[in-house]
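Sample pair:
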Amino acid sequence: MMQLTAAEKTFRDEVRGYIHANLPADIKHKVMNDLHLKKGDHVRWQNILREGGYFGGGWPSEHGGADWSPVQQYLFEQENALAGGPFIIPYGVNMVGPVIYTFGTQAQKDTYLKDILDNRTWWCQGYSEPNAGSDLASLKCSAVRDGDHYVINGTKMWTTQAHYAEMMHLLVRTDDSGRRQQGITFLLLDMNTPGITISPITTIDGLHHTNQTFFDEVRVPVKNRVGEEGDGWKIAKFLLANERTAIADTGSKSRAVASMTRLLQQADHLDAGARFHFSERLARIDFRLTALIALEQRLITQWQAGSQGAHEASVLKVKATELQQDISILFSDLYGPYKAAYNVDRVNKGEFMEAATVADAASGAGHLYLYGRCASIYGGSNQVQRNIIAKSMLAQ
């Protein structure tokens, strides 16, 4: 397991103290009961973190961050999840922000970075398309140069939170004459630009998380291109690698295991056989979580030391999402027949449940189960991740 220095322990304790002192009760309630969080919940919490110096801490200090190491970033994510803080929405602070301060022009840095840190601009990501999800290099959404603008036509699929966003960072095809990866360009798009249509997608949990976004002659200034034309594939790989410390999300899994342990202890309706059955399943999940945490910490320590393995993040992604889905199955099963009483309205409203019925509580577990089905697909499907692992390992 990770051996923390005295300074890292102090940092962890400071983060823990700040979160416990400042996390609003209504937001914590939603997280702890697996209810639906809205944009306002995330903005409010991220602003509170910003006031304490804990939002964007991984950014360089010259751009408004705190120069956190990978270990510090990991410790923050752990403490935030364990305390019931919302997952940090990554599209601005953890994705496009680092892209802009690494590859962007000074004008782009001046325009966008402070608003990201201050939560004044909400971003979404335009990567996946129909028939170009995990196989991102096959994207077809085109951008044709017309003087000082690119003209975009096509569509993006699964654009999470596009209905909230003021800006999108997206990949477009500017050249289809060579290798697929060579003709991709990275653009920054104002979502109020004429020609953009957002079509909501209701997912299996009955909620609106994601969308299909259509572009019809959408004009984007060339000054909104990050890097050179054709640099999009290189920038996209940098962006995805920048999210490595959050891939396993073991803090929220540890919180879920603790909740299931309490639920099992209080489940008076279970006979001895059922209790043994569920206890055994929970123990197996706990063992796997312990192994995942150990792997995660070892890799973060290696990354901090400069090691850059080609397949390590893929291993974490596969094992973490498989465990996440198995946790959600067990959580739902613990409620027995009540798991069929999924109440999407209650989950969506996120109301306090001081007098919650078993069916109310089961709805939260049902939400965790239903939305968790997509975990092995988003961020690169597990099948594709296994191909990356195999290619890397067999090449050695």
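The mean pLDDT is 91.
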